Amino acid sequence: MKKYFAYIIACVMLVAAGCTDFGEETQLTLPGAPAVEITGITPGDKGDDVTFTVKPAGTAGYYSWVIIESEKVDTTILEAPDRVLKQQVTGVKTGITEYAKAAETSVTVEKLTPFTIYQIYAVASSVDGVDGEVKNAQFRTLDDGSKPTPQKIAVADTTVTLTFHEPLNLGTGKVFVSYFAKNTVSGDKPLVIEPGYEEFNPQDIEIPAEGLSVSGNDLMIELPNAPAGAYASITYEEGAVLDLEGNGSSAYTAKADTLISGAPSRGLTTRVAVKAWNLRSEFEDLNPDTVATFAEWEDLVIPALTDEGIVVAKKVADAIPTVVYKQPGKVVTLDVAMWGLMNGVPVFLLPEEPARGATVDIAIPANAFEDVYGNTNIALDIQDNYLYSYGYTLDDIVGTYRLDGYNASTGAPIVENDITIVADEESDDENAVLIKGLGMNLFGIEETTVAAIFDPVGGTLTVPDWQVLAVDWIHPSVGTPADIFFSTYNSPAIIFAVPQPGTVTSANDVWGYYLAKDETAYGALRWYDPSSTFVRTDSKSATIRGQVLPETDFPILKEKKVFSK
Predict the structure, then answer these.
(1) What backbone phi and psi angles, to 5 degrees, belong to 443?
(2) What is residue 445's predicted lDDT score, i.e. its pLDDT?
(3) How many Cβ atoms are within 10 Å of 282's Cβ, its own excluded?
(4) DSSP label at 316?
(5) 150-272: what fold?
(6) Which residues, 6+ apart, have CB-to-CB distance to 430 below 8 Å?
(7) Which of 106, 193, 517, 545 stands 20 to 30 A from 131 (CA)?
(8) 394-536 maps to which CATH number?
(9) How far apart are CA 9 and CA 321, in angstroms?
């Protein structure tokens, strides 16, 4: 309330003297503002408009109103008459009228939302500018009279939400879902399912009653047996849902009928969440440590197996697999040029020949393949399972050889007598051989023999350390009998490379002959550099298998040595 103060001052002027006399102070109270009435609220038949009247109950200065979409009354607006009068409250529409020009105002507000609750707030002020109390009234717009109409579709996990233009109740009409696998359909109006893929595109599956529910404008649909990545088209019969006035929905029968950017589209269609699937090597179910050998690189087909139930449809060209060729001291990585599907199985061909004896790994990136629904694979690395075999037979190693040796200390060439490699008939290992003649010209011994194992796949010849070449041989400097051993410098065995038939070279360590007796070590008689090479001069001894060798030809293997060389 605004109050004004008036002061009455009486002054009596005397001829001989003057004085000032203050009278009693008086307080004046202005009259209050009239109440405001909101009457005649009439929602329009189409549900998108309303008419109402705002009228002060008595003489006023100004009166104002605002309409807001809300189901609840805002008490902060009720407590702020000045904001309402000055139209500082935001709403769908506001208005203000000077009472002197119109004692009441009929208001029409359009473009409202059907079947929605709105709040009206109004207030009047007195002629003197005193604010009155804020009056509130609410109403709901009418239904627009049409049948419930779907507006949008969304999915979370396997629950589809179909949003209509107005609040709903469940009806009695049936609801259906049809699934589409994107990589098995083609065409336009309608989509055509490729023959043989019908099981991946089941149509018109009825949704059970317990799978349907409504909330507000939303119809929730629990999809039955929804495949990951499938496109789901929803259809329904007449009266599947009702609006709150009982109007039933029309039947909706349109499904996805075309491909847009590769996706089944149109109708009430959405996509179920995708799920990545695994690839695995052909050895995973048996023995992941298996090493498979191959001798013809152009014929090698590396498969990648899928999870059970996954049907791979295509490769994705922008995801490039790579192979890694691993061999001692060298690793080569290459893109795979030839890859795809063979009878529905992802397969890969080598881009070029590896080095013999190389291990071949393959890296398959994620998203390299899609299944029928468009789900993609998880990355897979297959390592240490494929070995490029030399494809040798025993005939590629047996024969007569010349040793082109080099002194490990000085590098000086060393030429020995002919050395013979023959099959070891007494061994259970079909790749066991005997090396005869090592050190004969050095020691003057008629026969020296050591055992070895030939690897026809990896192209190696392995000679175990500490094999006896001669017993009780007398060295001039020692003077007493001692034994001569085939010896490595610091390895359990010498592993020679066999890069081609008839060539033995590239030892993994220095090797040679060592003199010792029991636990007494005298020292090395000769060390050969690892680059020393055996070159075959005659392969006639390849026919040695089947002959019976004298007992003295077999090497004596010392189980362990108890001293350091």
Answers:
(1) -105, -10
(2) 76
(3) 15
(4) -
(5) Immunoglobulin-like (2.60.40)
(6) 394
(7) 106
(8) 2.40.128.120
(9) 105
Which pair of tokens denotes residue 481?
């009998």
The H or E element that residue 97 is part of is strand 93-98
Please give the pLDDT value at position 166: 87
Angle (nearest 5°) at CA 306 between 338 and 298:
25
Q: What is the reported pLDDT for 221?
A: 98
Compute the distance between CA of residue 36 and CA of residue 39 in angstroms, rounded to an integer.
10
Q: Which residue, among 364, 280, 263, has the nearest Cα to 315 in the 3D structure?
A: 364
| Contact between 374 and 315 (Cβ < 8 Å) | no
φ/ψ (deg, to 5) at 181: -95, 115
- Given 2.60.40.420, 2.60.40.10, 1.10.1240.10, 3.90.550.10, which CATH number is that of 36-140? 2.60.40.10
Q: What is the mean pLDDT of each run of 10 residues along the chain (565 residues)?
A: 32 36 57 93 88 96 95 93 95 95 96 88 94 94 81 95 93 98 94 95 97 97 97 97 92 94 95 96 89 92 94 94 91 96 96 93 97 97 94 95 93 86 95 92 80 94 95 86 94 95 95 94 94 90 36 36 38
Q: Are strands 258-260 and 241-243 parallel, antiparallel or unpaired?
A: unpaired
Instruction: Specify the pTM.
Output: 0.64
Dump the DSSP string for 171-219. Answer: -SS-EEEEEE-GGGEE-SSS-EEPTT-GGGS---EEPPGGGEEEETTEE
pLDDT, residue 540, reads 65
Fold observed for domain 279-388:
Immunoglobulin-like (2.60.40)
CATH 2.60.40.10 residue window(s) in the chain:
36-140
The residue whose two tokens read 């075959």 is 536
- Provide DSSP, 337-399: -SEEEETTEEEEE-SSPPPTT-EEEEEEPTTSEEETTS-BBPPEEEEEEEEE-----GGGT-E
Residue type, 480: T
The pLDDT assigned to 162 comes to: 97
Structure tokens at 108: 């029409």
Question: Residue 379 burial (CB < 10 Å; 0-12/13-18/19+)?
Answer: middle
Pairing of strands 268-271, 231-236: antiparallel
The H or E element that residue 441 is part of is helix 440-443
Domain with CATH 2.40.128.120 in the chain: 394-536
Burial of 274 (0-12, 13-18, 19+ CB in 10 A): middle
CA 362, 368, 371, 376 torsion-angle sign: positive
Q: What is the pLDDT of residue 26?
A: 54
φ/ψ of 208, rounded to 5, equals -65, 155
Tell me the C-alpha distance between 295 and 387, whole Å. 9
Which candidate, 366, 332, 334, places its Cα nearest to that of 350? 334
